[in-house]
Design a protein that fits this description.
single chain; mainly beta; eleven-stranded mixed β-sheet
Length: 490
């Protein structure tokens, strides 16, 4: 989930040229063979334009752009296979398949709060912010708890030391405890730094300044060519060519796919078709590196075609007459089945601890059991004990904690449902006359009527502290469908 400022749409600009603005009565007419009618071409462009465009100062805008140093993405593919013929016509094939992606497009926040280092204490913001967040957790969000002074905050914000409180105590009481479990630490940081709610920090010359943001943007996501991906797989395939009426292929794949973000290039941070796997910490993009959204660790496939051994010339009733053969002969059974292990998913914090625009993922602090079941409301739930996860979100002992400043959290560290589907068909052909056949088919899709749930972020509640955490709301599989057909070919 992303957050937009209240005046976001006030900064939007649109230039449209709508279709169907003319009717047969109002459309321009030709007045002569060489005279073109006047057509409305839309608003008149400005007489002058300055490039590059400079965004206004102090706007704290949330915007999107493209890195001017993009490189062409490419991939390196590798494969190796060996095949051996086995008795009874079987063949066994073993293969390695690898694919490495380079210069893949990832969106990086060019305006993310800097990891500012205090030269006096030698401490950076991520460390100092984490110390404050841990104090909030240890005190279970109590704003009145007394906390020790942290030199980082004392040195950068001496103006906040007031009424007998240290600067650290003031920030803890008035900001960190207020936002740690709601909109996150970036809100607290913006209050004391950019918005100057308690007075602005100053530069060495005493001028008001922002230490963590520049004046124009709260966030500026840009396509950049920093992405990398790794796919490695081992494959085993057992084949049986058509013999004695049977043909089948049985395959098993053990694979692992790793990337920094799994969105397609057509998706963007601002679009509705992205999974928001953007770089969460621009100062350490490698924190995003994890299993791909589509990582399928185990995959088994089986397809077959079997001529049933009944009727004239077959193993059973091989000497049957024409009438009996028309009933029991010529039947064929075919099918296709696919099974995969669980697909990965993540859980999100309620606020924005590291990036102003994109939420980080939760971090496991203990065992978390995934077990599909129906909760007390009859809804499909992925976590075995979701109440324990949400009830202990403040303080120690919770199996999933909120991330600290600078952390991206754990991406795709849980596994939900995999896929299972069995499609099958039964058919029979009759040869009527020379060159003319009649074929009957009965086909069943998802023959076992198996139910598997989707782990896509839009299909699974993944927000910590929400009532929908772990609840599935969309299926990977479709209900069983049957179809019958009768085809005459000539």
């Amino acid at each position: 989930m992303v957050r937009l400022p209240a005046n976001y749409c006030n900064r939007c600009t649109s230039l449209t040229n709508p279709s169907d603005v003319y009717t047969p009565e109002t459309a321009p007419r030709f007045t002569g063979v060489r005279n073109l009618p006047g057509i409305d071409v839309g608003p008149t462009p400005p007489a002058t334009a300055t490039f590059p465009y400079t965004p206004p100062l102090n706007s704290f805008a949330e915007s999107f752009t493209v890195n001017s140093h993009l490189k062409t993405p490419y991939s390196e593919a590798m494969d190796f296979s060996v095949q051996r013929e086995l008795p009874a016509g079987f063949t066994l094939e073993a293969a390695y398949v690898g694919r490495l992606g380079r210069h893949l497009l990832q969106e990086v926040d060019l305006a993310e709060p800097v990891n500012f280092v205090d030269t006096k204490s030698g401490m950076d913001y991520f460390t100092a912010g984490t110390l404050l967040s841990k104090l909030v957790d240890a005190n279970r969000g109590n704003p009145n708890a007394q906390v020790p002074a942290i030199p980082y905050w004392e040195n950068l914000y001496p103006n906040l030391a007031r009424n007998g409180q240290s600067a650290t105590q003031f920030i803890y009481t008035n900001e960190w405890t207020q936002y740690r479990y709601t909109t996150g630490e970036t809100t607290a940081l913006a209050d004391i730094d950019f918005f100057c709610l308690y007075g602005c920090p100053t530069d060495p010359q005493g001028n008001p300044t922002s230490l963590f943001w520049q004046n124009q943007f709260a966030t500026l996501y840009a396509w950049s060519s920093i992405g990398m991906s790794y796919y490695n797989a081992g494959q085993l395939t057992l084949r049986h060519p058509s013999s004695h009426g049977l043909q089948f292929d049985l395959g098993y794949t053990l694979s692992k796919s790793i990337d920094m973000g799994s969105d397609a290039e057509r998706a963007s941070e601002a679009s509705s078709n992205g999974s928001f796997s953007d770089i969460l910490n621009s100062w350490n993009p490698a924190l995003n590196r994890s299993a791909s959204d589509f990582d399928t660790r185990h995959l088994i496939t089986l397809d077959w075609v079997y001529q049933l051994p009944f009727g004239r010339g077959k193993a059973f009733a091989g000497s049957s007459g024409r009438m009996i053969d028309a009933v029991i002969g010529g039947w064929q059974w075919s099918g296709l089945t696919r099974w995969t292990s669980g697909l990965p998913f993540s859980v999100l914090e309620p606020g924005w601890s590291t990036n102003w625009h994109i939420q980080s993922y939760g971090v496991r602090t203990g065992p978390v059991k995934v077990h599909q079941h129906l909760d007390q409301n009859g809804e499909p739930q992925v976590f075995d004990n979701v109440a324990a996860i949400n009830s202990g979100i403040i303080g120690e002992g919770n199996p999933i904690r909120l991330p600290y400043p600078g952390e991206a959290g754990e991406r795709n560290n849980f596994r939900g449902d995999g896929y299972f589907g069995l499609d099958s068909g039964l058919s029979k052909s009759w040869r009527l006359w020379e060159g003319q056949t009649l074929k009957f088919a009965w086909e069943v899709f998802n023959a076992t009527n198996s139910v598997r749930f989707d782990t896509n972020p839009n299909s699974l509640g993944n927000g910590l502290t929400t009532g929908s955490l772990g609840i599935y709301n969309s299926l990977l599989t479709a209900p069983r469908v049957q179809q019958f057909s009768l085809r005459f070919a000539f």
